[in-house]
Protein 1
Amino acid sequence: MRALATALFSILLAASTRGASPQSPPATAVPLQQPDVASGKRIFESHCALCHGLDGGGGRGPSLRRPKLNHAADDEALKSLIENGIPPEMPEAWFLSNEEIASVAAFVRSLGNVPPEILPGDPARGKTIYARSGCSACHILNGDGSSFGPDLTDIGARRGSRRLRETLQNPAKTVPEDFLLLEATIASGQAIRGIRLNEDTFSIQFRDQQGRFYSFRKSELRGLKKLRGETPMPSFGAALSPVELDDLVHFLATQRGKP
């Protein structure tokens, strides 16, 4: 009996050993693929250059040729920004893989190491032209001026010299997508022009050039014209000589906000 029991135990032990799954070898970590800056450059030129310029110097979107980006303090924030965008101005890059996003981010970071543009003109003379031309009537620069138009304190960091020149020469061509000049005719028949601040189905709010704020129910207005593509900014293409235009562009390009 003892021999039989021993034999049965041996058979059961062998069967259990055959049925047991061998332990899997420990998983080895897959090394992360290094971002490909050249690939990121090609993707940038295909999908990002329309707004940021082929050289990253800015256009409809801000210049990226700087070491610190306002919306991306580190690489992870930059990759998240590329993937998710900034609605409604910057679309999300849902069609890019994680590797492609990392490559675009690496290329964008490389733009911060590009030497600053060498521009013609004298920024000191440009400052005088800025004051003489009455730009502060619509723009704030380092705390001085009116807020009817965009703040120019960091315009040199947000826009490249090519975009600055184009705006000065033909401002209607570079009107931001979210900018809308409108003309509201109130019950008395008076027409008021201003820049839209907010609008919903029933009401609209805007600010005129003197800085006055208005809020109306649309049903109270006799008329409401949306002047799409128009801007109150005059063209300086004919008002300034080529040398003066160089001076003013150079002055604006040096306005990069607080270091």
Protein 2
Amino acid sequence: MERFGGVFEESPWIAREAWEARPFGSVDALHAAMVWVVEHSPATARLELIRAHPDLAGKAAIAGDLTPESTREQASAGLDRLTPAQYERITGLTAAYRERFGFPFVVCAREHTPDSIIDAAARRLAADPDQEEQTALTEIAKIARLRLADLVA
């Protein structure tokens, strides 16, 4: 739990439940077990997992209240160095997204730049709510895979 509890944002229960499937022959097998736990969890737990993610370039980031993992990930995408126009666009889109779907816009920031995040948020605002929940969970699985790789590197 100490080592893998932070792989999924503020959701150590995933690592705890996946651990029951050990031993794991590889990091990929551990990741697959963790994703299986998420996929087979009740809808309310999946929604709580999505809601555990911070807004991109949001108040928590400005206040320094992100988890260390989220801080590094947002910085890797340049979200700590936004132009005023990018900041306004990202915060506007993520607020509209949260209002539409009831959870934060989640994207694997390490795969993006500020401009590609803006493009993705604008595009995903038009998605069907069920489809968007699945997209958020897919992005969360990508984030978790990269966090696992960091831990075992």
